[in-house]
Amino acid sequence: YLRLMHIVRDSTLFALDSFHESSFADDPVPGWRELAPTFGSLFLFFANHDLMHASQIFVVLRLLVKPVVF
User: Fold this and answer.
1) Could you tell me the sign of the dihedral formed by the alpha carbons of 48, 49, 55, 59, in that order?
2) What is the pTM for the complete model shown?
3) Range from 8-22, 25-39, 44-58 that averages highest in pLDDT
4) How far apart are CA 65 and CA 54, in angstroms?
5) Alpha helices per DSSP H over the chain
6) Across residues 3-19, what is the average pLDDT?
7) pLDDT at 70
8) What is the rounded distance in angstroms from the CA atom of residue 46 to the CA atom of residue 9?
9) Residues 11, 27 contacting (CB under 8 angstroms)
10) Which of 1, 24, 28, 54 has the fewest C-beta atoms under 10 angstroms from its C-beta?
11) How far apart are CA 23 and CA 49, in angstroms?
């Protein structure tokens, strides 16, 4: 899973680097408008997506009374 995560992250960064700044305010692809009304908000969603899942895992670990490990 980590290898796949890095592949997706590298692809997202490549897309971000090649994206024209004036297009960030444009509407994203159909089906994403409710979640991310602009391409800029779509890139922010991708950036925060891993953190969202990490926090979900943290909640499960706390419910299982597992120790906090940093």
Assistant:
1) positive
2) 0.66
3) 8-22
4) 17
5) 2-18, 39-63
6) 90
7) 65
8) 9
9) no
10) 1
11) 22
Give residue 13's identity as a one-letter amino acid code: L
The residue to which tokens 């994403």 are assigned: 32
Amino acid sitting at position 61: L
Q: What is the DSSP letter of 21?
A: G
Contact (Cβ atoms closer than 8 angstroms) between residue 38 and residue 26: yes
Rounded CA separation 53/50 (Å): 5
Both structure tokens of 52: 């969202």
What are the backbone dihedrals phi and psi of residue 4, each rounded to the nearest 5 degrees, phi first? -65, -40
Q: Which two tokens stand for residue 20?
A: 């024209």
CB 27 within 8 Å of CB 37: yes
With 0-12 / 13-18 / 19 or more C-beta atoms within 10 angstroms meaning exposed / middle / buried, residue 24 is middle
